[in-house]
């Protein structure tokens, strides 16, 4: 232990490695199709330098219209289990309702990001996501968490670890799926970042990102040529604080 601590002491005096903003993403099912906001590191890598990153996100979604809580069918344990047959059989009862929905699924998304310094002030990057959609395994954990006092109505009423997606408008079934998707490549995103100004402690960069419509979501929906233009900045007032 003494030798290990001794070997690490020189590292404590060096400037800490700063990896940029933590990757985040909106994971609600309706936002998996288009481009959504994701943090962009404003600091250029430098000419000829590479950065490769891999991140994984697991998201559990459960939301449904109040109209379904008393009418939806139940399974053997008495939990809500929406089926296509039930929706079609009762569609006429919802003809006056503008929108009804039921989302219950778990999504695993793994993204590979590669970034390269074209010049000292300009970087090029690409992101390639790989995504699976299923009933998952987090329902039990989430139900236990809600028992601590953070209740969400219906969590203990819906069938565990199911995948069901339904959207209905004025009694017409627009979309229904209860099939898992075991791994599928999603649309890539290509971006360009350029540092426009800065100083000893701060940097301001502009970026442009483009997502071409190459793949489909749920085997049906396809986005357009999504694009994003923004500013991203970094301020480091001292060695150990970065904003």
Give an overview of the whole structure.
- The protein contains 3 helices and 9 strands.
- The two termini are 35 Å apart.
- The chain is mainly beta and 243 residues long.
Level of helix content?
10-25%
- The count of DSSP E runs of length 2 or more, i.e. the number of strands, is 9
Could you tell me the mean pLDDT? 85
Unreliable sequence segments:
none
Estimated structural class:
mainly beta
User: What fraction of the residues are assigned to beta strands by DSSP?
Assistant: 35-45%
Q: Number of DSSP helices?
A: 3
C-alpha end-to-end distance: 35 Å
Query: Sheet bearing the most strands, described?
Result: 9 strands, antiparallel
Described by the principal axes of the CA atoms, the overall outline is elongated
What is the N-to-C succession of helices and strands?
A: HEHEEHEEEEEE
Q: What is the alpha-carbon Rg in Å? A: 23 Å
Give the structure's gist in a few sentences.
10% of the residues lie in helices and 38% in strands.
């Amino acid at each position: 232990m003494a030798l290990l601590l001794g070997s690490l002491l020189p590292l404590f005096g060096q400037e800490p490695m700063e990896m940029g903003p933590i990757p985040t993403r909106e994971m609600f099912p309706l936002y998996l199709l288009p481009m959504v906001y994701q943090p962009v590191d404003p600091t250029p890598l430098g000419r000829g330098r590479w950065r490769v990153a891999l991140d994984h996100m697991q998201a559990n979604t459960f939301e449904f219209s109040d109209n379904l809580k008393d009418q939806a069918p139940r399974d053997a344990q008495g939990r809500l289990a929406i089926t296509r047959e039930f929706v079609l059989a009762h569609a006429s009862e919802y003809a006056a309702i503008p929108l009804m929905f039921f989302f219950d699924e778990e999504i695993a998304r793994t993204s590979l990001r590669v970034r390269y310094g074209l010049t000292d002030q300009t970087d090029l990057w690409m992101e390639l996501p790989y995504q699976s959609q299923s009933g998952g395994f987090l329902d039990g954990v989430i139900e236990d968490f809600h028992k601590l006092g953070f209740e969400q109505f219906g969590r203990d009423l819906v069938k565990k670890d199911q995948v069901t997606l339904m959207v209905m408008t004025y009694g017409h079934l627009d979309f229904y799926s209860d099939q898992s998707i075991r791994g599928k490549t999603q649309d890539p995103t290509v971006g360009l970042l350029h540092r426009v100004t800065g100083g000893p402690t701060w940097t301001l960069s502009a970026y442009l990102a483009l997502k071409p419509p190459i793949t489909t979501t749920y085997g049906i929906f396809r986005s357009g040529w999504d694009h994003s233009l923004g500013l991203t900045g970094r301020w480091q007032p001292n060695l150990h604080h970065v904003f």
